[in-house]
Amino acid sequence: ASRGDNDVRRAWLWIVVVLAAVGAAGSYLQFWGDGSAAVAPYRLARVERGPLVATVRATGTLNPVNTILVGSQLSGQVVEVLADFNTPVQAGQVVARLFSDQIRSRRDAARADLDQARADLAMRRAQVERAKASLRKAEAARLDQIAQRDRALAQSADAERTLERVSDLAARQVGTPTAVEQATTQRDVMKAGVASAEAQIASNEAEIAGLRADLALAEAQIASAEAAILQREAKLRDVEIDLTRTDIRSPVDGVVVKREVELGQTVAASLSAPTLFTIAQDLRRIDIYASIDEADVGQIKPDQPVTFTVSAYPSRTFSGKVRMVRLGAETVQNVVTYTAVITVDNADLALLPGMTANVQIVTDERSDVLRVQNAALRFRPFGRAAAGRSRTDVTGDGQPGQVYVLDGNDEPKVIPVRVGITDGSTTEIVGGDLAEGVGVIVGGGPRPSTAAVSHPNASSPGAPPRGPRMF
Fold it and tell me: Does residue 3 have a pLDDT over 60?
């Protein structure tokens, strides 16, 4: 019984092998027979009507809208570090301090110099007041001397008249010679008094001129003292500015994204200000710098909507808007790209600087258009001329294209069309003899015969031979 069972199983095994060989031979004859090509069904897709969104895909990097580099304008040793990575800071907040004792000493010396200059100015002003008082006194003395001279002149004139009168009397034998001599002496005394008054007036005028020169000199010294005060005030302000610069402050509200200074480090700012902190001003708004190929940059316009994803949140889609396309191009290995700046609302702070974004920029959007699958526009029948019009028969908007439909004999027939925007899988039809619901060929059809495979020149240009389908 056991031997009989084995014979039965062996017989069934041979039957299966024979059937498999027959099936393989039939398939071979069907697809690789003597020059004939078996007819395989064409795959069709319906022409549909619906919305269509054209996008440009790119990658970019997330960056803060404003990045502030905080540095030091002074050289010195860092004695305090008051901010670290991810520390929120406000405008004016101290984030680090430099050693400041030497600058404080310079400030104290500058203050002392300023106080000395102010005291010197006060002394110069007192000298001016004293010179003015002396001048006023001299001018008053001059007026008194002028009055004395005038009195002396009057007395001299009176003495002259007296002398004339006495002389006249003496000539008429009325007066005595002694009276004439006395009148003459009195006249001479009065003339001498007038001459003395004139000399005193001249001396006083010279004194007044000297006092005026002294006053002008004192006033010039006041101007010099005031200029010295301004100079020392400027020096003091300069030192005080250096002192304030020992406190490294944040210029804006933001968050520290990078710290490049350590406690005890010596900062050298002789040639350029070293960067100590990098602060992102406001991460609730963030920018994407997307690299756009030069073939697509003409489609990018400000305010176009954008969607993107990041690896950190694979199931979440973010949105934004195009803010600008920078005019400066970048060329890397002969590939020219432009940078599109995309503004994104980051209110929940989920997006972080440096993340890579996979961006889709919506360049055009249609709500109700006639559309076909892109495979229909790429399809070309193998090794036979399709019936129908050439692609140049249709004019109008859009780019030229063609699709194939089946005619009454189930043969492919070319239909010239004009195409519009595409979303990568379907394309808008803007012209041509296509209607909604029509089936267009997207694939399938006859396979190459044995002769076509053996003699590739016999096939249509660019159509590679296909192997047999075993199903």
Answer: no
What is the rounded distance in angstroms from the CA atom of residue 193 to the CA atom of residue 181?
18
Q: Given strand 76-81, what is the order of strands in its sheet?
A: 247-249, 94-98, 76-81, 266-267
Q: What is the mean pLDDT of the chain?
A: 84
pLDDT number for residue 387: 52
pLDDT of residue 384: 55
pLDDT at position 225 over 50 = yes
Choose between 275 and 14: higher pLDDT. 275
Question: Which pLDDT band, with edges at 50, 70 and 90, does 454 fall under?
Answer: very low
Least confident of 7-21, 108-122, 288-302: 7-21
